[in-house]
Design brief:
Largest sheet: none
Order of helices and strands: HHH
Shape: elongated
Number of strands: 0
Distance between the termini: 17 Å
């Protein structure tokens, strides 16, 4: 699972190809939730991060076309 929301689907997100290949689910997209609605519910729940600035995924720091692979241990 990941934290993508409806607003993320409007941007150029090359990583979504990998996400699809690995069959990662997007619960917030499945719930049809956009960033504004998520912030609203987060504020109502008293979460301290409700108005925290958005942060880009670490993988967005790599140049387009660079292959990113996993070399970790399998569980």
């Amino acid at each position: 699972m990941d934290g993508s929301n409806l607003d993320d689907l409007k941007d150029h997100r090359p990583g979504l190809k990998a996400v699809k290949e690995w069959r990662i689910r997007h619960p917030l997209v499945e719930a049809q939730m956009a960033k504004e609605e998520i912030r609203h519910y987060s504020r109502d729940l008293g979460l301290p991060s409700w108005n925290k600035p958005a942060l880009a995924c670490l993988s967005s720091r790599f140049p387009y076309g660079m292959e990113i692979t996993w070399k970790g241990k399998e569980k």
